[in-house]
Amino acid sequence: DSGVTQTPKHLITATGQRVTLRCSPRSGDLSVYWYQQSLDQGLQFLIQYYNGEERAKGNILERFSAQQFPDLHSELNLSSLELGDSALYFCASSVTAGGSTDTQYFGPGTRLTVL
Amino acid sequence: SQQGEEDPQALSIQEGENATMNCSYKTSINNLQWYRQNSGRGLVHLILIRSNEREKHSGRLRVTLDTSKKSSSLLITASRAADTASYFCATPTGAGSYQLTFGKGTKLSVIP
Fold first, then answer.
1. Which residues in chain A are closer than 8 Å to B96, comparing Cβ atoms?
2. How far does A63 lie from chain B, in Å, by closest CA?
3. DSSP B49-104
4. What is the reported pLDDT for B97?
5. Residue A80: per-residue pLDDT
6. DSSP string of B2-43?
7. CA distance B29 to B67
8. Which of B98, B102, B106 to mutate to test the interface with A (most CBs of A within 10 A)?
9. pLDDT in tens, B84-95
10. How do A105-106 and A87-94 pair as beta strands?
11. Per the CB 3.0–4.6 Å rule, which of A86, A107, B55, B67 could disulfide with A91?
């Protein structure tokens, strides 16, 4: 158990809908990262927050947004969902803002299925 | 885009044998990390090797890094059925090296 929690574990929804994925980092970790894992694209970094502020952005679609709240939990909002958004979404956390030797601890993921 | 590429894509061995997985990457790195993922579950950090290190051990794991060839290998000795998983190499990329870029992984099956 990494100490990172994600809810829900599974989410099934229809195209065009909007969903919110939630992540609670390990106690004491200030950074939260979001990743998407799909069969065709593999593991892709989406976005990072550090202590409430956006720190780095990766291959995140404009239909997706995230935020980190004062209690450090984070939410990833996915809107206007398409079939291709079906994937495993992982949250990870680390102690610092990141950088070359910071270990990221991953949550169990949320499996999103768009029908 | 993929920074690391693992080889082979899949590997099947008998319990007790050693498993070797390789990773190649494209750009200069400060470190390289290996993660394990059991089927459909979260990733578990295994080991980190810095660019000034050539070899690192952790239990039954041995990681080597050759920065001149931009490659790394992960050796699992005396494999067990519980080692069955996908293994990914990852490198910090992007401005400030905040994000990890993962390869597509090696799927290891250890047959009891």
1. 55-56, 97-99
2. 20
3. EETT-SEEEETTEEEEEETTTTEEEEEE-S--GGG-EEEEEEEEESGGG-EEEE--
4. 65
5. 97
6. -SEEEE-SEEEEETTS-EEEEEEESS--SEEEEEEE-TTS-E
7. 8
8. B98
9. 999 999 988 776
10. antiparallel
11. A107
